Amino acid sequence: MNSKAMLAAALLACVSLAGCSKESGSGTDDLASIYDEGAQTYHVRGVIVQLPSDGPPPTDLRIHHERIPDFVGKDGKVFVNSDGVTGMKSMTMAFPELGDEVSLEGLHPGDKIAFVLKVKWLETPSGVKTPHWLVSAVEPLPDDAQLNFGDTVAPATPPEDTHDGP
């Protein structure tokens, strides 16, 4: 390849890479925009286990949350786990992405919170759907708020017998 052709190829590669780069410094705006359309939104309560830090090593916001009974899985249906419990079980999860408006100021591990969780299932290049989580709002709860971290579901109540005769 002659030097002019190599220069043109290098210039084209630079222009192509520049067009794919993020304009914002943190990239949060680009990532948060994936939740604008088609994401499921859940109103959840939990306890802060860990606040995010820059590290080293960096850490995520970790929340022990209550069961999310209407959690929709990657197939677009309410998830049912192997125990027959619908939705997402109560668990401690790391949430690496926080919405731009989320402030954790004044909050500490052990504080009870209500938060809005947005979940979007995105397909990887290999065709596997993976969840992406965004905590888009956080509000403190009173210290005496009662949280339920149990995963049991009350059995369905059988309908009353309204039959009047044999």
Roughly what fraction of the amino acids lie in strands? 25-35%
What quaternary form is this?
single chain
Helix share bin: 10-25%
Please state the average pLDDT score: 79
CATH architecture of the domain at 30-140: Beta Barrel
Largest sheet: 5 strands, antiparallel
Topology, number of strands = 5
Shape annotation: globular
Identify the strand order in the major beta sheet: 3-2-1-4-5
Distance between the termini: 94 Å
Unreliable runs: 1-29, 154-159, 161-166
CATH topology group of the domain at 30-140: OB fold (Dihydrolipoamide Acetyltransferase, E2P)
Q: Which sequence of SSEs, written as H and E, runs from N to C?
A: HHEEEEE
Outline the structure in words.
- It is a single chain.
- The chain has 166 residues and is an alpha+beta fold.
- The protein has a domain at 30-140: OB fold (Dihydrolipoamide Acetyltransferase, E2P) (Beta Barrel), CATH 2.40.50.
- 14% of the residues lie in helices and 27% in strands.
- It is built from two helices and five strands, in the order H-H-E-E-E-E-E.
- The chain has a five-stranded antiparallel sheet with strand order 3-2-1-4-5, with no helix packed on it.
- Strand 4 and strand 5 (129-140) form a beta hairpin.
- The model is unreliable at 1-29, 154-159 and 161-166 (pLDDT under 50).
